[in-house]
Amino acid sequence: MNERVTWQLYNGAALNYDEYRPRYPHAVFDILTDYHSALAPLRSAADVGAGTGIFSRQLMASVPSIARLTCIEPNCDMAAVAKERSAAFRGLDVLAGFAEMLPLPDRSCELVTAATAANWFDRPLFYQEAARVLKPSGTLLLLQNKHRHEESAFLDDFVSLQERYIPGFRRDHYSDFWGSYGKADFEAELRSRHDLVSVERYKLEWRQTTTAVQFRGYCQSGHLRMAIARSGAATIAKELDALLDRYQDASGYVIVDWLTDLVLSRARPQEQPLGKR
């Protein structure tokens, strides 16, 4: 496993991550429920690459039929915050583990999710594992929160800042399993498989109004930490200050335009016995 360049990035960042990372629009859970509604109720789920449990807690609160949810997270700092912040959610457990080797029995879940995490995985291995732990016709949900930089001068300039200070980073590319940056087309990848079927994709556009302080906290919770480590905290803080000075309003707020990109698929249904219809 590629420990140094993947989950260790978040060492020491877990509290900022949980505080400042965006949540997911409620429409995600309506889409999930509609997609799965003709099947058995969602009772057992696994959230892979769960981080501090942001999506896990939203999932349990929004889909009350889920009685057991396992957060799987390799980073000790992130997992510790997930345990602390999720203590009130009965049936939510946190396990150390990897997407490529899920610590779950075969056919044990109706739902497997990865929320702004699957770009980090060795996805062919993860898809194989997801198909293994899903019950027949169980649902796999992948979703990513993405900046709509093409529609926002603020976010376009923010991407340019990252391109200047993070080696190898390019817009519309995401951190990957190998410690570099690449494009991840979950829909195409899933459509090419025989063990995961009925692929559907949805795109949800939404807007977040956040303070400059909150935006700085967001920046300190992710891969901009690489720029800070390389160029120094003072240099990156100066760049962020200049960016925010250009775009924040008189009250110190900036607008962040988001796209939540969802891809759903199902584990192949169990074959019917001969003579059954």
UniProtKB/TrEMBL annotation:
Gene Ontology terms: biological process: methylation
Family per similarity comment: Belongs to the methyltransferase superfamily.
InterPro entries according to UniProt: Diverse_substrate_MTase, Methyltransf_11, SAM-dependent_MTases_sf
Family matches, as Pfam families: Methyltransf_11
Keyword annotations of the record: Methyltransferase, Transferase
Protein name (record): Methyltransferase domain-containing protein
A GO MF term: S-adenosylmethionine-dependent methyltransferase activity
Domain Methyltransferase type span(s) in chain numbering: 47-141
Coiled-coil residue windows: none
The organism's place on the tree of life at top rank: Bacteria
